[in-house]
What we know:
Elements: E1 6-11, E2 25-31, H1 50-59, E3 68-73, H2 83-95, E4 100-103, H3 113-125, E5 129-133, E6 135-136, E7 139-140, E8 150-154, E9 164-168, E10 171-176, H4 195-208
Parallel strand pairs: 1-3, 1-4, 2-3, 4-5, 5-8, 8-10
Antiparallel strand pairs: 6-7, 9-10
Helix pairs in contact: 1-4, 2-3
Amino acid sequence: MTATPRVVVIDSGVDARHPALRGHTVLAGPAFHTGADADNDDSGRDELGHGTAVAATLVRFLGERPVEITSLRVFGREPVCDFASVLRALEHAVTLRPNVVNLSLGTTSLRFRGALQDLARTAKAAGTRVVAPASYGGLPCDPGTLAEVEAVVGDPNVLPMLPELRPHGGRLVWFASPLPPPDADGVRRLRARGDSLAVAAVSGALLRSAGIHGAA
């Protein structure tokens, strides 16, 4: 029996009405961002379009196979947030025990490393793959630096549907295309570029092999 692969997208929300997500299940989890629009909010809206672009990119790897996407919102109306909010969202994501957690952001601060290390180990023990960028602004960033996390580098020379796992900096790192999906300028514009979409591509590739034989 083949199980439906499950992914948690920690981002700006996911617009389930977008044509690229037709046929997939989008669940609106709690919002973890702070700000004027945080009250009585959930992750069923996406005012930035970033989280929707991430979701649209990763589902391309599944073809006609449905995916269950749980959206946890850490961005409000601006693409900035306190990383403590991201940490709380990641804590919640790990309790859901999905196949993959897509985290297309990170922090260059070492302040959260201990907590992130604990979460990464818990996720790995549960069979959850946490996917995150290896760097931000040219600097290594957490949680992508952690051995238990699938670190990603955006490389425009990699074919869009064929992320590559290569030795890099003493470990194995994913190299993936940072290019947007072909429907980025469709009915509702998808606003994301660069490493964010490279991370989504790796999440999609991992989901493609997830859920086989009823695996969790």
